[in-house]
């Protein structure tokens, strides 16, 4: 039988690293530390076919070596943003190994906030998680996709859903006042110069997130779809370096509860919260 | 063969409810809403043996009925705290069903913070989760156990571990400067009057949490054990209504990374983050 | 303020170990291996107060040492059952450290079945997980609690629920034909001689599990409660060495679907499967 | 600012349905039932731009309606395979709604095996999960991707990894005898006639799975890469209707334990089991 290796990729996933940035200007317990943490997935593509088809490992950079590399690079990088660290990791693999043609680094951050004004105490407060996927391909433009996951937001009014398609499979009634809740995932794409190591990833992340949240509540929502599109539009408006943005807004339903005894009114006060089934709406908006 | 029913208990778990508190003083979209959400487990004990041993269901309050009851009670309760709502649910079951001898209500809260200054926009920001377990037993003192789960905290210095037991199974070296990170679970117990519906559950929760966090960073930690005890002591000091407190502090290890090439120094800068295996330390401190 | 350490306990959790039992009678690739895997939690109680209250670590056996010990003991033990390995671990800690008064070892097993008739190929097929909790207290009877978790079972008829308590909070109708599905957790207790290292943990586990499954389907179920009790009774009957058994049977609801267009019959054919809220029924049956 | 909707898609996820196939030839409790369960994600593409950009819902088939449809179609379908049910659901949406241009249905199955020889008792034994993704695009060939997820397999010898790339980032030694364990995800693609409703999805699934498992253990593995490729090749050989197959084989590392006291030999007997970081290897093989 004739088959061929159409695509392959490998690397190390879930390389979890933390770093203490220490000013070294005082005894350890009086220094004002910074504390950062990320989980890093490294994936490589390149001249690796022989490993698959011939059992020839000579060009294989072991996944264990990929792991070592992440820790080694974290030594010399400030990890101020996962975007910039992802770039550093991807650049290393392309520069170091000429037979690697593409390196993709996916990162999630655990955000440690300062605990009070302690110089070395921290709390990881946020449920929402910054994400980044950096893809460097030899002789191509760099691509950095920044994002946020698990951003749980709700509006308790100013949301409805009416006049949607009606047939014998429909049972849902029109409503002009419902809870709209979602666990937002957003990813926005920097390309070319905007994806370079000089990008203002912190400022842009702040601008995008702020635009998303502000827009979520600034209008009457006729559907998740409409609100999603407005949010995406506002985010691109706030971040000229981003070419496109993808939002996924699973509907975390809060359904009006039937309150016993039968006949008890429930004027949009008490809701049943469900995880599944859930409406799933996603779109990509580009300039 | 002679066997007997030594213990039984049943109820409905994961009854998830949200409530919009609406002032009703303005058109819906101009009201300033409050939004609260909890997941509620109800468990009943009482004269239910016949259901198990005889298939006689006549005294069984269906778990579906338990669920209905939670929604019905949420209608008339402000859900300002999960402690007070747990009390309301437990009181209802004891008052309503004379054959119920004990009702235990376990709750976790999803904390919705206001989104900017929006009257109806909210964000569930916190990873840490308030918890409560309310147990009412007929003719006994009420007990309310308040708590917090998933409170992820770290200190990047001012922590060591030295002079512990040495034998041929030990390989860990002494250290006087390490990261101490934990995902804290704390539960504190109100009894008698302090557990009544007039308890200042909000103020006490704030006081306990603040004492725990402040103490975590205010000393050089000679072990998780020592820090745990100090935190517990401070929490009881801050909350006279609490009789006892239990802390569980799993050690979320940040292990000093071996940085390649071999011989590269790593002066407490880069760490490997691991979830397992993990040290587990717990204690209960009472007045 | 006067507080006291009322209880404490510590150890290492999630020590995950696998072992290849190798007959050493042939070249490695022709040996017929056995492959076993467990996750082990070790907890110690004893003379550890000074660590909490004084920062005195001298008696503290580090959790890292606990981890080392598990791997060392796995070297000399066949791990044929998690019960017997738990006993070996607990015995070690009590024998080795005179200031340890209690050792509790909790284990879950990943069951590796032989893959076809391969001498060294294995598949971890089962969703259900064997569990064990071994508690040795100095000068007390040994206790071994064997168990199984995540055993997902269903019967598609021969189950009903009628004549349960009726009031204005009830909305559920009587039914004499429903799906009964549960994710069973069972734990049974060996004490004294039955908990010794000579116990037939394999045979007893097989007997208990078989009795539970057989009984689940051998009768018309008037409630989860009734079926649970019958299963417990049968299990104790099948395993004379067990003193008591606790079953937890969360109701994994399969609710009759409303099929559109309205009026379409659904004669117990199509069901909506839900995870939450769920009925939770548990009981302990003793001789 | 000028932006445009580049892509959008929506639907209902996690529609969980079970079905009892009842022969209706006997009283209910004597029938020999079949019991099947699936979780279904439905996604639609088509003429939905106006919902996003204009808040015009008239063409939007509500996600609630999608859910209703799944239950309604389950009434008339035997759900014998998730592939065939996915086809039925996708065909319905394309046929029914002329403005829908693409329907993608993703399914996972909970496999209920008969419990002993009970006519109506079942146990969901398998950790491994059948999957399917059916994509129907108007005027294009149907595509059915069948798969299996969470298939946990290991070989305790006949696996090594040597002669891989060596530089100063490498610390891993060559080995010619290690444990190779993975949680396999496989997906294979039927197109055209092979993806039609007459496809032998049961027989092909059995053939692919058998080929994957047999090949996993039938050779000395020089790398995960080599074994993966051989497995893919064998699967395509066993299933002429499949055009291509993608395997993902995360390395579930079993690392040789360091056994204390120092110097204790560990001749491939005791291993530390870790979940992360983990090697990740994937490839697609086509005819």
From TrEMBL, chains A, B, C, D:
* Xref: InterPro entries: Uricase (IPR002042)
| Residues that hold O2 according to the record | 63, 251
Q: Name one GO biological process term.
A: purine nucleobase catabolic process
- Keyword Oxidoreductase carried by entry: yes
* Family of this protein: Belongs to the uricase family.
Q: What does this protein do?
A: Catalyzes the oxidation of uric acid to 5-hydroxyisourate, which is further processed to form (S)-allantoin.
NCBIfam families in alphabetical order: urate_oxi
Q: What is this protein called?
A: Uricase
């Amino acid at each position: 039988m004739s088959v061929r290796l159409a695509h392959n990729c490998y690397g190390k996933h879930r390389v979890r690293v933390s770093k203490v940035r220490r000013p070294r200007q005082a005894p350890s317990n009086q220094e004002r530390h910074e504390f950062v943490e990320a989980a890093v997935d490294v994936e490589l593509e390149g001249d690796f076919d022989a490993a698959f088809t011939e059992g020839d490992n000579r060009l294989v950079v072991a996944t264990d070596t990929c792991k070592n590399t992440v820790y080694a690079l974290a030594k010399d990088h400030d990890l101020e943003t996962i975007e910039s660290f992802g770039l550093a990791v991807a650049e290393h693999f392309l520069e170091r190994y000429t037979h690697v043609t593409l390196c993709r680094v996916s990162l999630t951050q655990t955000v440690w906030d300062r605990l009070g004004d302690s110089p070395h105490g921290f709390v990881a407060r946020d449920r929402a998680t910054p994400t980044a996927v950096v893809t460097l391909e030899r002789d191509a433009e760099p691509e950095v996709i920044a994002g946020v996951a698990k951003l749980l937001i709700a509006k308790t009014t100013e949301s409805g859903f009416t006049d949607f398609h009606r047939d014998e499979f429909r049972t849902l009634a029109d409503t002009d006042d419902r809870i709209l809740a979602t666990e937002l995932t957003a990813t926005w794409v920097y390309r070319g110069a905007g994806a370079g190591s000089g990008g203002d990833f912190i400022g842009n992340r702040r601008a995008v997130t702020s635009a998303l949240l502000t827009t979520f509540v600034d209008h009457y929502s006729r559907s998740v779809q409409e609100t999603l599109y407005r949010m995406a539009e506002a985010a691109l408006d706030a971040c000229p370096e981003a070419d496109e943005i993808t939002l996924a807004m699973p509907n975390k339903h809060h359904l009006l509860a039937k309150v016993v005894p039968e006949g008890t009114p429930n004027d949009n006060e008490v809701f049943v919260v469900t995880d599944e089934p859930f409406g799933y709406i996603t779109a990509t908006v580009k300039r």
